[in-house]
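Structure request: Substrate-binding domain-containing protein, Streptosporangium amethystogenes subsp. fukuiense.
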Amino acid sequence: MSLTKTRLRARQSVAVLALAALGAAGCAGGPGEPAAANGGVEAVYNDAARTGDVSALRPMTDFCGTKPVKVALADGTGDNAFRKTARAEFEDEASKCPNITLLPYADGQNNPQKAISDVKALVAQGVEALVVFPDAGEALLPTLREAYKAGVQVVPWTANPGGKPGTDYTTFVGHNTVNDGVTWTRWMCEALGAKGGNVVFLGGTPGNTQSLTEMVGIEKELKENAGCSAVKLLNDPGKPIDTNWNPAQMQKVVSGLLTKYPTIDGVITDSGDASLGGIRAFLQAGRPLPLWTANDLNGFACAWKDNSDKQPNFQTVTVSSRTWIIRLALRKAVAAHQGIKNDEPEIINIPIFENTLDTSKAPKCDPSLPASAILSSELTPEQLKRAYS
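Returned structure:
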């Protein structure tokens, strides 16, 4: 889920603009500005008409249509568990339509020029419905526009490349990162209770829009929720603490924070994987594990299971790591090619997946799978094992 340096440089200025627009408009509260403004980034999380819950999602078979259709996935990089899981979900969803022909998977290998060449090659092979993870950000936008103008239904997902749906590509599909910040913070405030406490937010790479917009949701909830009045966020205003979504870097960062602050009662993160490094830092420092939020990950759930008996304050909540949203992206692309209206939301409010304070949502630890496995996917355990083999 980390961003390439090229994408970061291309999007840091857009991220700042997105934050300003989100804050001024009350975050995810109402209709946004036209999608073209500032590359369309802030409008994605600010347009109620495009946003919905998982209950509004529909099966692939509603959109298969009857015409043969060639589909493909162009990934900015394929070298981590998130991308491997998403690829398996994409291929599983495509298998539900007998009229779909799946073209070869394209791995951009964190190289913007290769990602551009991959899209062009797929267009030359006759792709008609193309799902793209645009790690290269706006650098990839002219190529997406070129494919779209050539008649390909192009749907970028998770990473917003800027541009305008209907002009530069078919539509953009992703998740409401502001809502994630609200969800984590609301849980944190409820878990801390009236006594409150000190909380830190650990983000990813410097300037990435995911962590920045999550920060908007965190600060919004802290300001508006009376139950958060005794909770103190140790971050500088508007600034996630960068960890590069890397376990070793998070361990180093958290070690520094533990030296600086004698009391940390809660950690909000947007990475279950990187959290494993932060947990190690607490344990090595002999400090009690605090309340902790993340995106779901098998290793994170197992870390809770391994430590919960001796660490009673170590309660956790996760939201889904949302690899299944790639299925929605495929449905949007195929439906557009078939001329079938797809009224599913483009931006999904991600639900809580695990919650140690709710017995109906106990963390899921599967020791037969790698620590990097994402159990909130729609894949079976057998499919997950094949994805990581």
